[in-house]
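Private note to self, pasted from the team thread so I don't lose it. Backbone tokens:
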């Protein structure tokens, strides 16, 4: 067959990444041509290799979901290639094409782990069926492998500390007791709250989230407990609160540590006896609600310094789940990176295959103050901006020493100073950068930034003045998610 004029029209680029990659191996050019044309027409991405060694080279360089290989080839034959694949690419299906009448070696191939074989001459439909089946199995086994190896409940992580979390979720999902999830910002508290709900018998009932830090004090009661018509100006009709809405399900009290003391009392009562009244209502209401709370503060410390009610703390903290910061489970970073690469490749239509060893080293060494959220954001930005198919250190801004370089100024204008002055200026610039970052992280909220920095609001304001960082207006109150 001469080069065919009816080359298959390329699929739209956007669709490209969804297409499975198949490697066709045959020493005969005409067969390679027919097979690639056929498979490309069916929507696969298809490459061809003319020999076993060439196939191995390609498999080492690229990612394929499937190999279709001829049995009889000079040098390395189909069975040898199959053996190499089973050893080096376990789980990737291999389909063998045999000449008519060589059933013995076909059986041998199956024993060696081939997914299936087809005999020449074959129908296009037959090939199509076998390939579809093989790819379906590949996908299922990939998913299963990923699910129990990478984590559980859509939570990625397999360090002992995370496994403990999974065990706890499983154990307590169906109990009615209150759970308090604690952990630094971005460690996955919300994910755990949802996992608790989704793996409980309540999963078909509502999961109602309350962001305790975002509800204005004067609206707290009416938001949580609802109100009756005429309870206050503007209450033209009655409205159920979040507790009522969550009846039969779960209420998630996020950022419970942000709740002012007077509102803590109100929450305590509903937790104690499960009853509440709508604002302006006389009837006592009861809701069957599972309470899950989360905080990124050390609530016990808050209790000690009088900012959090002790009785409420014990009421919430019946079952504590602590999420480790990412820097304490760096072994999970490669898994998380893989997870987010897949997610953002899919979402952004990119094909980033991985990160270079240098980049991985930088990822492992970083402190991750923003934990998994920080990693997730970094991966999203890097995948979006990536030119090549591997992310190198230059694709991961903000890691390593960049914080320091930014802080002291890239010009290195202080190199000439004596040591004492050098250290003074350097640390001052670092301090300024850290404060600026904390303010950004807290959306300009000075009180929260001062907590994050572990200094008083007053001394933060003094430093802001000193460094010429303006006290920005507090962001407008937003409704919660
Ligand atoms: N173990 C994990 N596996 C996969 N994704 C995760 C994991 N932990 C967190 N994430 C992702 O990181 C982001 C932040 O997680 P989440 O909102 O649950 O954190 P949080 O602890 O509630 O943070 P905050 O205290 O700031 O509210 C989310 O997009 C979440 O999907
Ligand atoms: Mg959260």
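Design output:
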């Amino acid at each position: 067959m001469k080069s065919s004029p009816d080359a298959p029209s390329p699929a739209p680029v956007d669709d490209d990444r969804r297409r499975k990659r198949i490697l066709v191996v045959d020493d005969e050019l005409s067969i390679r041509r027919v097979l690639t044309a056929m498979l490309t027409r069916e929507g696969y991405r298809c490459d061809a290799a003319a020999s076993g060694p060439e196939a191995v080279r390609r498999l080492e360089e690229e990612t394929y979901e499937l190999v279709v290989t001829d049995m009889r080839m000079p040098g390395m034959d189909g069975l040898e290639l199959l053996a190499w694949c089973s050893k080096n690419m376990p789980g990737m299906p291999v389909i063998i094409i045999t000449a008519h009448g060589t059933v013995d070696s076909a059986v041998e191939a199956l024993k060696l782990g081939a997914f299936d074989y087809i005999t020449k001459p074959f129908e296009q439909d037959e090939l199509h069926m076998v390939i579809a089946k093989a790819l379906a199995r590949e996908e299922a086994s990939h998913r299963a492998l990923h699910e129990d190896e990478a984590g559980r409940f859509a939570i990625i992580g397999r360090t002992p500390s995370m496994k403990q979390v999974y065990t706890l979720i499983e154990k307590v999902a169906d109990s009615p007791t209150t759970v308090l999830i604690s952990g630094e910002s971005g460690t996955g508290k919300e994910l755990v709250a949802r996992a608790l709900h989704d793996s409980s018998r309540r999963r078909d009932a509502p999961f109602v989230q309350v962001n305790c830090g975002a509800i204005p004090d004067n609206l707290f009661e009416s938001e949580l407990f609802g109100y009756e018509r005429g309870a206050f100006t503007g209450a033209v009709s009655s409205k159920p609160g979040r507790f009522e809405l969550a009846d039969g399900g779960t209420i998630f009290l996020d950022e419970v540590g942000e709740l002012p003391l007077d509102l803590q009392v109100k929450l305590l009562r509903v937790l104690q006896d499960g009853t509440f009244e709508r604002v302006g209502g006389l009837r006592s209401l009861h809701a069957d609600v599972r309470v899950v709370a989360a905080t990124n503060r050390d609530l016990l410390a808050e209790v000690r310094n009088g900012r959090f009610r002790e009785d409420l703390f014990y009421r919430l903290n019946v079952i504590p789940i602590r999420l480790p910061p990412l820097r304490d489970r760096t072994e999970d970073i490669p898994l998380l990176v893989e997870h987010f690469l897949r997610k953002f490749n899919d979402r952004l239509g990119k094909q980033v295959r991985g990160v270079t060893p240098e980049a991985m080293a930088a990822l492992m060494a970083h402190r991750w103050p923003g934990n998994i959220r920080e990693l997730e954001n970094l991966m999203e930005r890097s995948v979006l901006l990536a030119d090549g198919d591997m992310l190198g250190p230059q694709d991961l801004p903000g890691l390593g020493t960049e914080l320091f370089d930014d802080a002291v100024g890239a010009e290195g204008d202080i190199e000439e100073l004596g040591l004492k002055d050098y250290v003074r200026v350097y640390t001052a610039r670092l301090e300024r950068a850290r404060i600026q970052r904390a303010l950004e992280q807290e959306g300009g909220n000075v009180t929260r930034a001062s907590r994050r920095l572990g200094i008083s609001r007053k001394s933060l304001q003094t430093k802001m003045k000193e460094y010429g960082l303006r006290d920005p207006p507090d962001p407008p109150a937003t409704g919660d998610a």
